[in-house]
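ESCALATION

Customer reports they have been waiting on this structure for their group meeting. Please prioritize. Original submission:
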Amino acid sequence: MKNWRELVDPLIKDHLEIQIKESSRHKKAYDLAANKGDAQLWIAIANLSKQTFNIELKIKYIEKVLQDIVSKINNLEHQKETIVAKEIIKKTAKKKPAKKTTPKPKKKTLKKALKKF
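Update from on-call: job pushed to the front of the queue and completed.
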């Protein structure tokens, strides 16, 4: 008869072997148990729980970093908008309304006036 591990779906077989290897590192502990199989399963569950916990810590850290980045981007955008608004105000304040002036009559110089005669 085949070993039961050979019949496991190939998609999870590598994961199974890793968990068996990891739990076998604690063989001294589960050898002392009345039901060695149950103890080995609980050790495998504890290993999975530890892996899940570590992944959750990493995810929380990445989420925090992303939130900080988004916050900094939002602050930079707000600062940029404020700077642009101040520049517009300065430019608007510098521009004075154009004066309506009537064109001054040109003064004819004496020489030009004499040439006509």
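Sent to customer with the following note: The two ends are 134 Å apart (CA to CA).
Escalation resolved.
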